[in-house]
Amino acid sequence: MPPRRHRPTLKDLAARLGISESAASFALNGRPGVSEETRRRVLDLAKELQWAPHHAARTLSGITSMTVGFVLTRDVREFGMESFYLRLLTGAQSVLSTRGYGLLFQMTSAVDEELAVLRRWSEERRVEGVIISDLRRGDPRPAYLKELGLPAVLAGGPDPKKLLPCVTVDDAAAMRLIVDHLRATGHRRLAYVSGPADLLHVHRRIAAFRKAAAGSLAEPGVIGTDYGDEQGLAATRWLIEAPVRPDAVVFDNEVLAVAGVRALRSAGLSVPADISVVSCEDSAICTALQPSLTAVQRDPAVFGEAVAAKLLRLIHDEPVPDADAQQPNLAVRESTQQR
Amino acid sequence: MPPRRHRPTLKDLAARLGISESAASFALNGRPGVSEETRRRVLDLAKELQWAPHHAARTLSGITSMTVGFVLTRDVREFGMESFYLRLLTGAQSVLSTRGYGLLFQMTSAVDEELAVLRRWSEERRVEGVIISDLRRGDPRPAYLKELGLPAVLAGGPDPKKLLPCVTVDDAAAMRLIVDHLRATGHRRLAYVSGPADLLHVHRRIAAFRKAAAGSLAEPGVIGTDYGDEQGLAATRWLIEAPVRPDAVVFDNEVLAVAGVRALRSAGLSVPADISVVSCEDSAICTALQPSLTAVQRDPAVFGEAVAAKLLRLIHDEPVPDADAQQPNLAVRESTQQR
DNA sequence: GACGGAAACTAATGCGCTTTAGCGTAGGGA
DNA sequence: TCCCTACGCTAAAGCGCATTAGTTTCCGTC
Q1: Higher pLDDT, B255 or B222
Q2: Which superfamily is assigned to B171-297 in CATH?
Q3: Cβ of residue B6 closer than 8 Å to a chain A Cβ
Q4: Ramachandran assignment for B273, one of left (phi > 0), alpha (psi -120 to 50 degrees), beta (any other)
């Protein structure tokens, strides 16, 4: 590996052209103070020498760091096949990069670790703002970010204390869509295999499910899991061994749904003939499976784009639109059928 | 949102303690030149005021930027459900963060865009090194990185021109594992639904497959796809409509495999009774499906860890071990059965 | 009691850039 | 003719830190 080439500095440019550093700086930044001819010469030379401003130097002299952070606290084992986060990241990143922002990514395994990362990033002035997600009950992050004064957007709010702006999907509406569909197609005993209830969005979904399905609830109506496929299997088995078997099961994401379908099959039940299945999260696997799974659609990439856009507005002190709720859509597929 | 708190600087610390900036700097960086007592006072005050070194200032004064980049050029549509990259990212990130490095992530949609990103990062001195992946035939990146003098590690090599160090999985060995297993279980007409052949690892797999399966090849033996599930469906249909139907099909990843199983089923064929199926990539879905899929196992997170570790060695001019080939393992599951 | 030397600091410089203030020169209006 | 302004540019300061070269004080030593 050759030694990293000595990068030309502004001083080099200026010296080669016999002008001052400031003139070069003006020229390169499109500010007044230099003649058009000088500007051209500077730009040409800069291109020739492959000059680019030193990021740290720029940041130090007051320009922002042009970086946004994204911390994700997640049990690594849970990352089985969920594609949600990568797609979210993809979307956020695409908006950021077109605006010249970089995305600093870090995963942590616990909330206090995440707090430490946020704090370090803030103190080091390494990021202009951050994206956080997966708010839990009593989550310390919104207040902490507020205290740090670090711009932040919550992917998947809302924040109950309204400390942070957020981009959210209307979880209750999504759940109503599902339940309405199931009832309209003749289902009368609905069950829901949810994620961990201390996740706020799960909590909202459970509440919405209970409310919407009132009168048509199976017993048990809701079973919590850790989003892992083993618990998905177990929960489903439990449901079908209940005295009165549900005629439709809603799963919180596609991982659980896949596990559920498997459990149903190995119990000799057919989907959708015996039991209908719905996933609250869509992904390629829902259409690839047989039967394909009825699922709530929301494009995680679009979601990520909205989050990033909102964060940039926040960073630039532009007015931030209040609630950015993506309206969910239900893709009805083969796994639900008229009773 | 309260205004971002004014961050204390070294000067502030020094002033409050009545000492010079340099003394404070010495104390904070654990170098000699200050008494233990002064050091304590500085450290205490720093903690009290939540002082942290300004990242840009540090970088500017010669300390490295403590950042590593990861660019991914990928057709966004292909990100259906592949979890590989998120897991790779997870692994790399975990190693980096324990060493205090940040991970700058960017996705691009074409190779020349990626080159531009790499160049900008290098010129701006924004990253110390980068991770790249998915080398294609005639890929310009290794030479370009060499020219930039930017440390880089290839995730999933080897680089045919040996310009870049890499961490690799022995693709040929993986393919031999598969083929040996299939032959040992009595399969005699093997077919392979691969990814795009201009990806080098796909190319290697195809060659290895052709060689290992010589004498037991179906006709057609290999069909290329774009990794999308539609082409997976089409390729599989084509295979089973061939005059002599294969008795086992190898799919390049789980996305293709899932699509393939679906195609087989809808053609009235049973897996594994009529046709065995193997996936070259494992993920939760392979075990969740029914039948569960026999697949080559390699932990993308471990892979990512190895890549990051290697990059750090490279950055620090430590000797870089030559070939870091992860030995693949074949998880035999329900989708392959004795003929 | 003078001297070498370590210890504990301070002063000053530089990293590469942005920005403000300042300084000639040319042109235009009175 | 003189003044005022606009222009094109230079000089200098500053961002926050690391680091090197000095400076002072104190100690042990012969």
Answers
A1: B222
A2: Response regulator (3.40.50.2300)
A3: no
A4: alpha
